[in-house]
Write a structure and sequence with these properties.
Distance between the termini of chain A: 37 Å
Largest sheet of chain A: 5 strands, mixed
Radius of gyration of chain B: 16 Å
Helix content of chain B: 25-40%
Oligomer: heterodimer
Helix content of chain A: 10-25%
Structural class of chain B: alpha+beta
Largest interface: A-B, 20 and 33 residues
């Protein structure tokens, strides 16, 4: 199945893309997509413990299972205000 | 009609938020006796650096839902308050407002607490980021790990609001 990945702030700088599309297998979770990206972009690894994640614009845990067409977002620590 | 919760590129207008938050016209209930406002501004110094400007970005649909969550938390804790919360994104110069909040309530204690709580929660959980452009370089500012379900963080915001 295919998912869209949204990346923000420094994560976008690291990957050079605000949005990526990836094929993932059945049973894929947010966490497995993150590990896939870490493999492609090792500079993401230091963020593994400090990112938040979302599916279809709702906060979601890393063990959340994904469905075809989902939009997954990875969010570095926030600094609004 | 000014929305209570918004995110966008236009300059913030506090007067509009005050009107939006305090537009209760039902004579059967107690009307507002207080509106407390907060404006967050771009400061000219940060961490010893001379700031040139900030560039804000947001995951907009999630940021709006997060504002709704914050407004709902405020209603749960201070039931008779109304909250207006607008955040600006894009390039902001020193002295410009990045966030504006108005909290209206029958009494000032609730209005002050709700306003303070809202800005603390924005900083904890809103998916918004600022990139600081200073003399000599630029860097992303990274603060809290956003987790709206983290009850400890929420309680900390409430303690600050009620201090």
């Amino acid at each position: 199945m295919r998912v869209t990945v949204r990346l923000f702030a420094r994560l976008r700088d690291i990957t050079g893309a605000a949005e990526l599309a990836r094929e993932v297998g059945p049973g894929a979770t947010i966490g497995s997509v993150w590990r896939l990206l870490e493999g492609e972009y090792p500079a993401l690894q230091p963020y593994g413990r400090s990112i938040s994640s979302a599916v279809n614009a709702d906060y979601a845990r890393m063990d959340t299972a994904l469905a075809d067409g989902d939009e997954v977002a990875f969010l570095p620590p926030v600094s609004g205000g | 009609m000014v929305p209570l919760l918004a995110i966008g590129r236009a300059p913030l207008e506090l007067e509009l938020l005050i009107t939006a938050a305090s537009s209760r016209t039902d004579d059967r209930v107690e009307s507002d006796g207080a509106v407390v406002t907060f404006l967050g501004l771009v400061r000219n110094r940060n961490l010893g650096r001379r700031v040139r400007y900030l560039d804000y970005e947001a995951y907009e649909p999630l940021a709006l839902k997060t504002f709704e969550r914050i407004a709902s938390e405020v209603r749960d804790r201070w039931p008779d308050t109304r909250l207006a919360l607008h955040h600006r994104i894009g390039r902001l110069e020193v002295g410009e407002a990045s966030v504006a909040i108005a909290a209206a309530a029958a009494h000032r204690g609730d209005a002050y607490a709700a306003c303070r709580y809202a800005i603390e929660r924005v900083k904890q959980v809103a998916p918004i980021w600022k990139r600081e452009f200073f003399e000599g370089g630029d860097s992303w500012i990274e603060g809290a790990v956003a987790d709206p379900a983290d009850e400890e963080a929420r309680a900390a915001a409430e303690r600050i609001a009620c201090a």
